[in-house]
Amino acid sequence: MVVGASATPGKLGAVMAQSLAAYDAPLRLVNSRGEGMHASVSEALAAGDGVDLAVLCVPAPATARALRECAEGGVRAALVCAGGFAEAGAAGEEHQRAVEEVVRETGIRLLGPNTSGFFVPGRRLLASFVPGVADLAAGPVAVVAASGGVNHALAFRLQQAGIGLSLGVGLGAGVDVGAAAVLEHLVDDEQTRVVALHLETVQDGPALLAAVRRLSAVKPVVALVVGRSDVAEFARSHTGALATSWRTTRAVLRQAGAVLVDDEDGLVAAVAALAGRRLAPSPAPGVALVTGQAGPGLLVADAVQTAGVTLPRLTDATRAAIAEVLPPLTFQANPVDTGRPGPGFDRVVSAVADDPAVDAVAIYALTEPVVDLPAAVATSGAAGRVPVLLGVDGPPDDVAAQRAAAREAGIPLISGPTALARAVAALADDATGRFACAQDVTPPQPWPGLTGPWDEVRGKELLDALGVPTPPRRRCRDRAEALEALAALGGPVAVKLLDATVLHKTEVGGVHLGVRTPEAMGRALDALEAAGAREVLVEAMAAPGVDLIVGARRDPVFGPVLLLGLGGTAAEVLADVAIRSVPLSDRAAAGMVSDLRARRLLFGHRGGPTLDPAELAGVLTAVGNVLLVNPDVAEIEVNPLRLTATGPVALDAVVITPA
Amino acid sequence: MVVGASATPGKLGAVMAQSLAAYDAPLRLVNSRGEGMHASVSEALAAGDGVDLAVLCVPAPATARALRECAEGGVRAALVCAGGFAEAGAAGEEHQRAVEEVVRETGIRLLGPNTSGFFVPGRRLLASFVPGVADLAAGPVAVVAASGGVNHALAFRLQQAGIGLSLGVGLGAGVDVGAAAVLEHLVDDEQTRVVALHLETVQDGPALLAAVRRLSAVKPVVALVVGRSDVAEFARSHTGALATSWRTTRAVLRQAGAVLVDDEDGLVAAVAALAGRRLAPSPAPGVALVTGQAGPGLLVADAVQTAGVTLPRLTDATRAAIAEVLPPLTFQANPVDTGRPGPGFDRVVSAVADDPAVDAVAIYALTEPVVDLPAAVATSGAAGRVPVLLGVDGPPDDVAAQRAAAREAGIPLISGPTALARAVAALADDATGRFACAQDVTPPQPWPGLTGPWDEVRGKELLDALGVPTPPRRRCRDRAEALEALAALGGPVAVKLLDATVLHKTEVGGVHLGVRTPEAMGRALDALEAAGAREVLVEAMAAPGVDLIVGARRDPVFGPVLLLGLGGTAAEVLADVAIRSVPLSDRAAAGMVSDLRARRLLFGHRGGPTLDPAELAGVLTAVGNVLLVNPDVAEIEVNPLRLTATGPVALDAVVITPA
Fold first, then answer.
1. Chain B, 308-337: which have a CB under 8 Å from a chain A CB?
2. In whole angstroms, what is the distance from residue A483 CA to residue A630 CA?
3. pLDDT reported for residue B243
4. Residue A148 above 70 pLDDT?
5. Among B642, B590, B599, B648, CA closest to B617
6. Is A264 on the interface with B (CB under 8 A)?
């Protein structure tokens, strides 16, 4: 049923009716002034059996009333296309509240408002006001997009890449049905083999993450998150919601098992690959690249390696097998440069797929009339043993023919060296993401019973209780205690202001380092007193090392999250940080180090200390889990956590209680 | 003429002959065993008038002899397809030397070896052994690729994007004709409006840069450089040459006016945009985005801004003009969200193009039957005033129809939000690159007549002579002089080992900072003596600030290059550096700061100092130009150059002479 149908060609209500006519069920059109249409919702409902879906193409002010008529007439699902709701100011918010009230009171499920609809090509169910959707093919990909426009743009781009859809949905404002609900539905949808998720904002973070976790365990989820640059103002005009942190959203989706892509081209390449055979979970799958031309092969290899995927050197046995087929003129260690593909290409592919270090095979070649690549790959039998991706460039007709043949053989075909590399990276990311997800989260230690106010000494007592190393120290209430502490601790000490209300001690002159003598202690205490100190912390200086920052906070969307970064302003400004939601598994914690682009600094760089990832994972988990067991901790930060030759040690600890 | 022609379908010599048959000139085939072919080169040459091009499809060992026969018979140009030359070990090197000898002795121009050829679709000149090239359309783009395979892959990808070619050439081993020669040729080639350059290695850096400078002044050059990850071993097997530094190559190409892209998808988007109207040189062009759908518009805006392009807020006058057409439901400040395009779309585009802050207009929309976008854009007249890019997604046939209409109207059409964003970024990069290139280089100061050995004091005397600030200091030969220096300089001083043979003073314990008292000086001198010091430098400690690294060295490929980075290991490991070739203009020097991702640290970050870019440019130019005026300086490094509240000051100076 279309409410607000139109007979004027091009109008939303007309195009929507035209799209829905393809569905195998009677279509009822409602427009009080439309010739041959029902004059009202109630008249239309009375005209026959129950209505599966009401599509409302009426303006925002008329929507709630029409929706209520549908719901009260027994309709269980509705699509609202109009804009002009919460994104459009006070009047729009009023209309939205009215719609939400109908949903709450009647239980009708609602998609929208402010969306161009959804489509299920395999059932010819096309609830879209973009007529081109009539030609979309059915296939294995479900698109779940924040925006109706992106849903359509992605559907058409997938169509161009020869990939069909099981479902395409644009959520729009998402006042009822949101991304999490659709993802949960897709867990058991047999038509869907891979899910493409586009996000602008996230309303219910935990529900979304739970859905992605459940879904990615059974089928790949590829996620494109908008908002790398500041697009908040425009985004809010679109959805009426604040943009969620791009960095946090990406990190926690990844932790839940999603494959992240940077743009829609990457999304198309990723779903093309993942609609085929999936890699088994693995911490570092090895990929072999077989190329018919060295130059494009170099482009692929360069992009694959830049994405962090390993091209392992093939074994001598594999290379011997290849050498039986190929002349000794080309590189054969991985990548394997076959030269122009010819007879024996299938044997090369087969040998490479059998290499023990190879978990997946990517093949690139220009189309050539002399060799039928999909047939050669099929003959090789490789695709029965490992995932195989075929990358092909050539005249459009040739590529289309090979794509059809590859589809028959069940082998994903991707056009373009870079797209092939992105496809390879997605295949590998799906495997590494699931590897990290496959482990249970580490249960939190019970709260050690400490209470605030959380000055640095109390904060470090908490760390001690959690098993996080801290330096020897003393709380000192007067000069005599401070001098005694210096004597007891020996060597150089740090002398710091002790006050739970001062969060940035350095900025108020509250930190004095390298104090060795009673005279120096006297000068430090003079300065601290002048800065208002009543108590001071005297603490042994730590050995030199590399400084890290570990922090946990409550994200407004996703709840408790944990952050790891390198110390120093450069790392901070370059946003070289790793983020995870809490609770997390040991693997997820250990993986935070791998996220840091400057991680090399932590592994013996220039004679520096070498990190034990498991030891750091223990610290990370302990700090993050604090937020789970104590609701009175809003935030906890260890800055710096110094990595020394004998392990990590927390040099500061800030615990913040809710405001 | 094809030497090594073949009658066996699929063989190189057969496909090559078939491709060349399309050319409007007699084709002579040579094969001693070929039926109906000439038995020898000399027989073929005797069979008619002169031969324009000899294509050699014979194996490497037979190439030099065949080439000599051609050259001595009057042929002036040859293409050698075979591999098996320098990239294939000792025997191959021998064959290559023989070919080079023929080139040197006869002056014949040679493309290859190890390439699949070249093509000029507009003249039906197709010297390629990939048959699909027969269908390539003539157009404005010249592809100059290191590899024959990449030349073909790019040609087919451009074909798919609806873009034709003026020339496609794969250089292969490039023993005679290299990239620089082809680029120089293209400066005056009227069929070529934009050049796509693919590089794996660079042999003659200065010639390449000179060619790019000349070419980019008259038409855009888009450059794709391979080698972001370590692909050196495979690359060498391909071309026989060492891979050039990816970072340096990209930086100096950019300085010469090229637009850099990261992959071949970016290359296609960039040439699509730049085949249209070019922006005027500008330090920061403003782009307006008009979108028919908010969601895809957000993807475009996000990617455009991430690429560093500004979307300026439209003026009130422009917004008032737009508001006459559009309902007040959508965002209209830039991006302009028109909602589904309808009547009046042309007036929106026109108003946006007239905005004084707008230098180019990008438009995105899904194809809709109700609106003819290319026609609306043409009606707007915007493309006559500023560059206009049209981004369209929809059913493939609709997109193809709109592409054809857009081509008629002279408006580049790009499919996909991300591709449109990349096209916008390329348009802007072409304008900013030319702005930086448009200034003459700063002539070097004459050499101040100093000589080594270059210990730190001598190095700083050089900096003083060049006008680079250094701290007050004294060279001290004994304890009495050091104590006198401490008294004279006052306050804390640095005491350093002075020895031109020690490059890393800190690592040998040669640096003592914060020395305030005669006792501390005594301890420092004890330690330095123990480390082998005979002379020491006593120097006033600089104020705190942000540390930079400035260095100049002689690159084996490009000659003198200058490097600017932030101090600290994190910035180093994250490779946050700017590189330029020397000599450089003030604009090029000032632009180095913009290249640093962490540049925010230099502009009052957390109460820190604020950089005067012109002042830093002076330091950079002075340091870089040292290499131009003194061949006895191999390398000079100022590490750190500290940015303080009162300006930059060089805290160390290392000058290295040739080994």
1. 328-331, 333, 335, 337
2. 36
3. 53
4. yes
5. B590
6. yes
Cβ contact A302–B228 (<8 Å): yes
Q: Looking at the complex, report in whole angstroms how far the Cα of residue B614 sits from the nearest Cα belonging to chain A.
A: 23
Contact A417 B299 (CB under 8 A): no
Is B398 touching A (CB cutoff 8 A)?
yes
Interface size, chain A vs chain B, as Cβ–Cβ contacts under 8 Å:
279
The third-level CATH classification (topology) of the domain covering A115-275 is Rossmann fold (3.40.50)
A417 closest CB neighbour out of B264, B417, B573: B264
Contact A570/B571, CB-based, under 8 Å?
yes
Q: Which CATH superfamily is domain B546-656 in?
A: ATP-grasp fold, B domain (3.30.470.20)
Tokens 């590529």 -> residue = A399
Smallest CA-to-CA distance from B257 within B434, B427, B423, B425 is with: B434
Q: Per the CB < 8 Å rule, is A566 touching B571?
A: no
One-letter amino acid of A512: H
| CATH class, range B280-437 | alpha beta
The segment(s) of chain A belonging to CATH 3.40.50.261 are 115-275, 281-437
Residue B423 in this model has a pLDDT that exceeds 80: yes
Closest-CA residue of A relative to B572 is A598
Give span(s): CATH 3.30.470.20, chain B: 546-656
> At CB < 8 A and 24+ separation, what contacts does B449-457 make?
B452/B500, B452/B632, B452/B655, B452/B657, B453/B500, B453/B501, B454/B500, B454/B654, B454/B655, B454/B656, B454/B657, B455/B498, B455/B499, B455/B500, B455/B535, B456/B496, B456/B498, B456/B505, B456/B537, B456/B652, B456/B653, B456/B654, B457/B498, B457/B537
Q: Which two tokens stand for residue B342?
A: 């309808």
Which CATH number is associated with domain B472-540? 3.30.1490.20
Q: How far is CA A70 from CA A37, A78, A116, A171, B388, in A?
A: 16, 8, 20, 20, 46
Quick check: B234 and A297 CB within 8 A?
Answer: yes
User: Model-level pTM?
Assistant: 0.95
Nearest to A598 by CA among B446, B128, B27, B571: B571
Q: Do A130 and B296 touch (CB under 8 A)?
A: no
Q: In Å, how far from its chain's centre is CA B47?
A: 47
A173 near A240, Cβ under 8 Å?
Answer: yes
Question: Quick one: fold of B1-114?
Answer: Rossmann fold (3.40.50)
- Per DSSP, the three-state class of B407 is helix
Picking from B262, B265, B298 by the largest number of A CB atoms within 10 A of its own CB, the best residue to mutate is: B298
Does any CB of chain B come closer than 8 Å to the CB of residue A305?
A: yes
Terminal-residue alpha carbon distance, chain B: 51
* Per-residue pLDDT at A261: 98
Residue B410, Cβ density class (10 Å: 0-12 exposed, 13-18 middle, ≥19 buried)? middle
DSSP B174-216: -SSS-HHHHHHHHHT-TT-SEEEEEES--S-HHHHHHHHHHHH
The beta-carbon neighbor of A416 closest among B83, B157, B568 is B157
Beta bridge partners of B475: B537
B223-248 pLDDT, tens digit per residue, is 999 999 887 777 776 655 555 699 99
All CATH 3.40.50.261 domain ranges of chain B, comma separated, are 115-275, 280-437
Tens of pLDDT, residues B57-112? 999 999 999 999 999 999 999 999 998 898 888 889 999 999 999 999 999 999 99
- C-alpha–C-alpha distance, residues B605 and B615, integer Å: 19
Among the partner residues A235, A417, A568, nearest to B153 by beta-carbon distance? A417
